[in-house]
Amino acid sequence: MSAPDRGRWLAPLLVCHECGLAQVQGALAGPGLVLCRRCGAVLRRIAPGSVRRAVHLNLAALVLFAIANLHPFLAFGFEGRGQTVVLASGVARLWREGMPLLATIVLAASLLFPLAKMLATLWALGPFLLRSRLPGQARALRLADALRAWAMLDVFLLAVIVAWVKLVDLAAVEPGIGLWTFLGALILATAADATLDHHDLWHRLGPQATLARLDPGAGRLVGCPACGQAAAVPNGRSEGRCRRCGSRLHPPRRQAIARAWALLVAAVAFYFPANLLPVMTVTSLGRGEPSTILGGVALLVEHRMYPVAAVVFTASVLVPLFKFLALGLLLVTTQRRVGWRRRERAVLYRLVEFVGRWSMVDVFVVALLVALVDMGALATIEAGMGITAFASTVILTMLASASFDPRLIWDRT
Question: How far apart are CA 60 and CA 75, in angstroms?
Answer without folding.
Answer: 25
